[in-house]
Amino acid sequence: MRQRSVPLGLGTDGIRDLWSPFGDGDLLRIAFQFARLHGLRHDDKLTAAVELATRGGAHFVGRNVHDLAAGARADIVLLDAENVPDALVRCPPRRLVISGGCVVARNGEVLV
């Protein structure tokens, strides 16, 4: 589908409910489930799974994708990982979560 330029994305519409009692809204875990379900094993494919949940998901809800750049929205998640595939496979705790330039969580504690 990607080779034919079909837009793809991953997302979640809930946390825990009757239809999905295992959800927690964590897009990294959504990407992990996608990668595991589809047997993705190589770094380029694992990175693509994360991009489906970040850039791809943003596309479907009409949000511009922002990279780390001056003037960007500053939605950032910091975690202890060597690279994107490592973050996906290990799903380490989030050390810092910034939304719109404001710190909203630190070391697993929600601040807002």
UniProtKB/TrEMBL annotation:
Domain of life according to the entry: Bacteria
A single Gene Ontology MF term assigned here is: hydrolase activity, acting on carbon-nitrogen (but not peptide) bonds, in cyclic amidines
Hydrolase recorded as keyword: yes
Question: Could you tell me which residue ranges the Amidohydrolase domain spans?
Answer: 2-104
**Any idea which UniProt keywords this protein has?**
Hydrolase
UniProt entry tagged with the keyword Manganese:
no
Q: What is this protein called?
A: Amidohydrolase family protein
